[in-house]
Specification:
Number of strands of chain A: 2
Largest sheet of chain A: 2 strands, antiparallel
CATH class of the largest domain in chain A: Mainly Alpha
Number of strands of chain B: 0
Radius of gyration of chain B: 21 Å
Strand content of chain B: under 5%
Radius of gyration of chain A: 26 Å
Strand content of chain A: under 5%
Largest sheet of chain B: none
Number of helices of chain B: 21
Oligomer: heterodimer
Distance between the termini of chain B: 61 Å
Order of helices and strands of chain B: HHHHHHHHHHHHHHHHHHHHH
Structural class of chain A: mainly alpha
Structural class of chain B: mainly alpha
Shape of chain B: globular
Distance between the termini of chain A: 72 Å
CATH topology of the largest domain in chain A: Arc Repressor Mutant, subunit A
Order of helices and strands of chain A: HHHHHHHEEH
Helix content of chain B: over 70%
C-alpha cells in the first residue's frame, strides 16, 4: 500500500497532528514556566514582597512618613559617594546573590575603593544592602536605583 | 598442503568479497576522510567510518566475527545500541556540557525548537506514503530531529533492523549541517530579516539554572513519559553541571563517559552497515527521506520565526529558526555564519543556542511521543 491510502490506513494524519501538538504543548508549557521562574525566585528571596502583595493599605501613619523622610535624607549621597556606591554595586555583581559582608569589605579594600567602611555603613543605613536573616546580605536594586540613579 | 592453502584462501576476504562490501568500504573511507580532512563532525564520522570498514571485511559465518553473530565481540558491544543504552549515556554528557542560560533568558525562543520538530512528523507521513510500516516510518521521521542518539534510541525500540541506515543517515546529515542548511535559510529570508539584531539577554541567576533541569524533567516527562530515558539523563547531566557541588561527576559525564559511549556507539553502528544487509532499496529511501526531513525541519523553524515576528514588538532574527533542529552546536554555528555573512558585527551564536538546546528537548519529546503511540 502506498501514497495517501497508506497514510489513511495507518492513521498517519492523526498521529502527526497529535505528535506535533504534544511537542508544542510540552515546550510552550515549559517556556511559560521558565519565563515566570525568575519572578517566583525573586519573591522567594524577598518574602517581604509576598507580604506586601497581601497587605491591606493602612492610612498613612505620621511616624512612617518621618521614617521614610529619614531614609530619604540618608540616601542623599554626594556625587563622589555615588561613584563609590556604583563600584560597590559592580563588586556585588561578581558575588553570589546572598553575600557575606566581610568578603565584600575585603573585595572593596583590595579593589582600592574610597572609604570602604563608611560607604558600607551608608549602604546599610539606606537599606541598599539588607540582611537576609541567615548571616548574609542582599543587594536591593530598587532602593539603589532610587537613591543613586 | 595444497588443500590447506585452498581452504585458507576460501576463508579470506579476497575469496568472500562481494561488490556490496567494496561499496561500503568506499563509504567508510569517505566518512574517515570527511572527518579527518574536512573536520566534519570528526568525533562521530571517524568512529562510524572505521566501524564501516570493520563491518565490511567479508568473513565466513561461524567464527563469531560478524556483528550479527551471537557470539562475536562486536555483537556484545552492539548490545548497547540495540537495547538503547548508549544514547541516554550520551545525553547525560550533553546535559553536563549544555548551558541553558540563553534559553532561560528568552524562553520564547523555545518555540522555534518545537517548530523545527514538524519535519519529523511530515517525514513520517512521507515514509508511510512510500510504503514503510508505521514503526519504520517513525524511525525514519526522527532523522529530522537531527539528533543521532535520539534517532538510534527510537529505532532500537521500534525498528531495530533499520538501525544501520538510520544511524548513518542521521549522522551524515548532522555532519552536513553547514552544507544543507544555509541555502534553505537564505531562500526563506530577506536580507533585511537576516540583518535583525537580537536584544541582549538578561542575566540568569545560578538558582534558575539549578531549578531548570528539575522543572523541565518533571514537566516534559509527565507529558511524554516515554521520553524519560533521554530527557531524564539530559536533565540529570545538566543538574550535575549546575549544582557545582557535583562538579566531579559532571566532569566524568562530559568527558570520559560521553567519549566512551560515543566510541562504542560509533564503531558498532558503523560495523552494523554490512554491505549485504545495508545496501538494499529501503536504505536509499531512508537516505532520501532523511534529507527531506532535515530540510523540512530547517524550513519549519525559519518560517515559524517569521510567523512569530508578525506578533512580536521586538523582532527576532528568523535565521534562529534553523537552529531549532537539534544538531548541537553545529546548527547554531551555521546561524552565526549565515548572519555574519550579511553583517560581520552581528553575533547570533549565543541567541541561536536557545532554540538549539530546546530542539534537543523537542526531539526527545517527539521520540517519546512516537514510541508511545507506536507501542499503543
Amino acid at each position: 500500500m502506498y501514497g495517501l491510502e497508506a497514510i489513511n490506513a495507518n492513521n498517519g494524519w492523526a498521529i502527526s497532528v497529535v505528535g506535533v501538538s504534544i511537542v508544542f504543548s510540552g515546550l510552550v508549557m515549559l517556556s511559560l514556566v521558565i519565563s515566570q521562574l525568575h519572578k517566583v525566585l525573586a519573591l522567594w528571596e524577598n518574602p517581604s514582597k509576598i507580604k506586601a502583595l497581601f497587605k491591606i493599605k493602612q492610612p498613612e501613619d505620621q511616624s512612617d512618613k518621618l521614617q521614610e523622610k529619614e531614609i530619604a535624607d540618608q540616601a542623599i549621597f554626594t556625587e563622589s559617594q555615588k561613584e563609590v556606591v556604583k563600584q560597590f554595586g559592580l563588586l556585588i555583581r561578581t558575588m553570589e546573590d546572598h553575600f557575606s559582608l566581610p568578603r565584600l569589605l575585603h573585595l572593596a579594600q583590595i579593589s582600592d575603593l574610597k572609604n570602604p567602611h563608611s560607604t558600607l555603613n551608608n549602604l546599610l543605613e539606606t537599606k541598599i544592602i539588607i540582611p537576609d536573616g541567615s548571616g548574609f546580605f542582599t543587594w536591593e536594586k530598587e532602593t539603589f536605583d532610587k537613591a543613586i540613579l | 598442503m595444497d588443500v590447506l592453502f585452498i581452504e585458507f584462501y576460501h576463508n579470506t576476504g579476497f575469496y568472500l568479497w562481494d561488490y556490496r562490501y567494496l561499496i561500503m568500504i568506499v563509504v567508510g573511507l569517505v566518512f574517515v576522510y570527511l572527518g579527518i580532512a574536512k573536520d566534519y563532525e570528526p568525533l562521530l564520522l571517524v568512529p562510524i567510518g572505521f566501524g564501516i570498514l570493520m563491518g565490511n571485511i567479508p568473513v565466513f559465518q561461524g567464527l563469531g566475527l560478524s556483528i550479527y553473530e551471537d557470539n562475536s565481540v562486536l555483537h556484545y558491544l552492539y548490545f548497547g545500541v540495540t537495547q538503547g543504552i548508549y544514547p541516554p549515556l550520551i545525553f547525560l554528557g550533553i546535559g553536563a556540557m549544555t548551558d541553558f542560560s540563553t534559553l532561560l533568558a528568552r524562553p520564547i525562543l523555545m518555540l522555534l525548537g518545537a517548530a523545527a520538530q514538524t519535519g519529523i512528523f511530515i517525514t513520517f507521513l512521507g515514509a508511510l506514503a512510500l510504503g514503510f510500516a508505521p514503526n519504520e516510518a517513525s524511525s525514519i521521521g526522527i532523522i529530522g530531529g537531527a539528533d543521532g542518539p535520539t534517532a538510534i534510541f527510537l529505532t532500537a525500540k521500534l525498528a531495530p533492523h533499520l538501525i544501520g541506515p538510520i544511524a548513518v543517515a542521521a549522522y551524515s546529515y548532522m555532519a552536513l549541517v553547514p552544507v544543507i542548511q544555509p541555502p534553505i535559510m537564505r531562500l526563506l529570508t530577506s536580507r533585511k530579516e537576516r540583518l535583525i539584531r537580537m536584544e541582549e539577554p538578561r542575566e540568569v541567576t545560578k538558582r534558575e539554572k539549578i531549578i531548570f533541569p528539575i522543572v523541565a524533567f518533571l514537566l516534559c516527562c509527565f507529558l511524554a513519559p516515554a521520553a524519560l530515558p533521554l530527557l531524564g539523563m539530559l536533565c540529570f547531566g545538566n543538574l550535575l553541571k549546575e549544582a557545582v557541588v557535583t562538579e566531579r561527576l559532571a566532569q566524568t559525564a562530559r568527558n570520559s563517559l560521553i567519549d566512551t559511549a560515543t566510541i562504542l556507539l560509533g564503531i558498532t553502528v558503523g560495523a552494523s552497515t554490512q554491505g549485504d544487509i545495508f545496501l538494499v532499496p529501503s536504505s536509499i529511501g531512508i537516505f532520501a527521506l532523511g534529507a527531506l526531513s532535515f530540510s523540512i525541519a530547517t524550513a519549519s523553524g525559519v518560517l515559524f520565526a517569521k510567523f512569530m515576528n508578525l506578533f512580536l514588538k521586538i523582532k527576532i532574527n528568523p535565521l534562529l529558526g534553523a537552529a531549532g533542529v537539534s544538531a548541537v552546536p553545529d546548527s547554531a554555528r551555521v546561524v552565526q555564519m549565515v548572519g555574519q555573512k550579511e553583517d560581520p558585527t552581528n553575533f547570533l551564536l549565543m541567541h541561536a543556542m536557545a532554540p538549539n538546546v530546546s530542539g534537543v528537548i523537542g526531539s526527545a519529546i517527539a521520540a517519546g511521543v512516537l514510541w508511545s503511540l507506536m507501542a499503543s
